[in-house]
Amino acid sequence: MPDSLSRRQVLRGSGLAVATTLLSNFPAGASSVPVLGEYDVVIVGSGASGMTAALTAAKRGLSCVVVEKAPTFGGSAARSGAGIWIPNNPVVLAAGVPDTYAKGAQYLAAVVGNGSSPARQKAFLDNGPAMISFVLANSPLRFRFMDGYSDYYPELPGGMPNGRSIEPDMFDGNLLGAELAHLNPSYLAVPAGLVVFSSEYKWLNLAAVNGKGLAVSAGCLARGTAAAAAGQKPLTMGQALAAGLRAGLLAANVPVWLNTPLVDLNIEGDRVTGVVVSSNGVPGLVRARRGVIIGSGGFEHNAEMRVRYQRQPITTYWSVGAKENTGDGIQAGIRAGADLGLMDDSWWGPAIPLPDEPYFCLAERTLPGSILINQAGQRFVNEAAPYSDVVHVMYDKNPSAPDIPAWLITDQNYRNRYLFRDVLPALGLPDAWYQSGQVFNAWSIEDLAAKINVPAAALRTTVNRFNGFAFSGVDSDFGRGRSAYDHYYTDPAVIPNSCLAPLWEAPFYAFKIVPGDLGTKGGLVTDARARVLRPDGSVIPGLWAAGNASAAVMGRSYAGAGSTIGPAMTFGYVAGNDVAGVA
Q1: Which of 18, 21, 354, 505 shows its CA 20 to 30 Å from the CA of 406?
Q2: Which residues, 6 or more positions from 36, have their beta carbon under 8 angstroms from its beta carbon?
Q3: pTM of structure
Q4: CB contact set of 546 (below 8 Å; sequence gap of 6+)
């Protein structure tokens, strides 16, 4: 407890130093800052949680403004694949998925356990389907079932091997007009001329060796051609989600102020009554008659906070979250007396720290013919496990069995068959990857081991043992292929286990693997109504939070594709409705 108090005191002090600097031109403090406007609700952040909250409050008849730090809107959601995990939602039910509220509750309880309160889990289950119906009714967004994208633990009670995640359907960017220019770019751009959905990437990976993969690729091209002929600007995944929500806000006359970072919360008595922001480098006050909703994202790009709260080694560079996510809303909440939860955790995933940006590995570590090894040259995890679990194992075992960095080992047969990031099968990898020291190749396992400084004999033994598993179809060490989820990003032509293929064809490749993330998952502790709580459990009047600025309802786990965005939008919806009930 003394360490926790010390962290808060230091962080509170550092945040106040920033606020004091920006307010230095106004000796009397926030009371002397010019008032930029007054609204019923101020929403901080224009990601999925913030825009859903703003749309909800606006449709409840409240005047709203969204203040956004970045020069773009959409945050990390715009960069993402935009899977949305919500049990029993109307989109999956319309697609004939046999989901029920009871199944969702059973599964969520099994996955999350005591990682979050039962009341918050119930609030998510109760409000998630209603949120999707609300967004469908109040924005041009449409959604599609991610057919076959398994829950991450489908063998648990209530789990669904065929999945229950949804994603945005294609959205025509023309509907945004000039505002489209302010959309935050995607993490990986869709190839020009194609219209690709998140659920189709697994098949694009296999286009060189699989008939369905080739057919899906042709379908993506046909969609792109049709959209171009119709004069559309087709958007999918996170681009569609952010654009669709922004279109809803435009129709609801909700302004989004870009380049307007949060400096601090304005508090009168014990109540949050607005925010101090920086506009053109000058502080200004935006009053909130009902309250403030923080949807400003996590702290993945705040080096000081990551060192303070999270396990080592850690760096901001390994994250693919929006670069503006530096914990501003969380720090403002701390200064207001908020409690914190899950600050040591993130939405983890193995990443390759490439020279241009980190690459978050999904299919690459799962496709047959690849293994993950530690610095002793040994496997240490089921490579096909949910990506968050893989990084948890990395941290749990490091440094006593050093695996940060780890290495993804593949061979030429693997490279001849599968897409790797955006490099087509059989094509050479970019020179810059090798020059950066993140990727190596060699004509023998022993020479590869020397290049990455692992024991050659140990790596040879590991590869030989794994090859035996590939021929038998049974991974006796880590059970790769036991779960239906393990087989999502695999090659159905590989038998007897689509997760396992031998490494045999030179040259061999090694890719450096570090603990990457989609964003942090710790933040302000909230209740089932998304109200921010103090350490004693009391409510901070006038303050709500959702998304990665709040401690995740998923606890330390990850139920399925979209376990970040689904709860973020749901608790944004909850917050927007709750603030509408404040007198």
Answers
A1: 505
A2: 277, 279, 284, 285, 286
A3: 0.94
A4: 49, 50, 52, 53, 293, 294, 295, 526, 530, 568, 571, 572, 574, 575
HSE-up (13 A, CA, CB side) for residue 558: 25
Q: What are the tens digits of pLDDT across the range 479-492? A: 999 999 999 999 99
pLDDT confidence of residue 191:
86
* Nearest-10 crossing angle of helices 2-22, 328-335: 110
Q: What pLDDT sits at residue 583?
A: 58
Question: What pLDDT score was predicted for residue 7?
Answer: 34
Burial, 250: exposed, middle or buried (Cβ in 10 Å; 0-12, 13-18, 19+)? middle
Q: Which two tokens stand for residue 577?
A: 């409705």
The answer to whether residues 344 and 334 touch, using CB atoms and an 8 Å cutoff, is no
- Tell me the two tokens of residue 344: 């040591």
pLDDT in tens, 452-465: 999 999 999 999 99
How confident is the model at residue 29, as a pLDDT? 43
Side-chain-facing half-sphere of 279: CA atoms under 13 Å: 14
pLDDT for the residue 124: 98
Nearest alpha-carbon partner for 279 in 577, 22, 564, 557:
22
What tokens were used for 60?
A: 């409840």
Contact of 413 with 504, CB cutoff 8 Å: yes
Residue 119's identity, in one-letter code, is: A
Give 425-437 as a 3 state SS string.
CCCCCCHHHHHCC
Q: How many CA atoms lie within 13 A of 538 on its CB side?
A: 7
Helix (H) or strand (E) holding 334: helix 328-335
Burial (CB count within 10 angstroms: exposed 0-12, middle 13-18, buried 19+), residue 119 = exposed
Query: Which residue is listed with tokens 């060796």?
Result: 209
The span from the CA of 84 to the CA of 90, in Å, is 12
Q: In angstroms, what CA-CA distances link 145 with 108, 136, 165?
A: 19, 14, 6
Inter-CA distances, 401 with 315, 382, 396, 453, 459, Å: 20, 16, 9, 15, 15
Report pLDDT for 327.
98
Q: Running DSSP on this structure, what letter comes out for residue 72?
A: S
579, amino acid identity:
V
Q: What residues of the chain score a pLDDT lower than 50? A: 1-29
**φ/ψ of residue 214, rounded to 5:** -65, -40
C-alpha distances out from residue 140 to 114, 137, 168, 173, Å: 37, 8, 10, 11
Q: How many residues does the chain have?
A: 583
Secondary structure letter of residue 115 according to DSSP:
G
3-state secondary structure 228-266: HHCCCCEECHHHHHHHHHHHHHHHCCCCEECCCCEEEEE
Angle between helices 565-580 and 118-138 (to 10 degrees): 80
**Which tokens belong to 205?**
């990976």
Query: Six-digit token pair at 574?
Result: 């909850």
Peptide bond into 535 cis (omega under 30): no
Amino acid at residue number 260: T
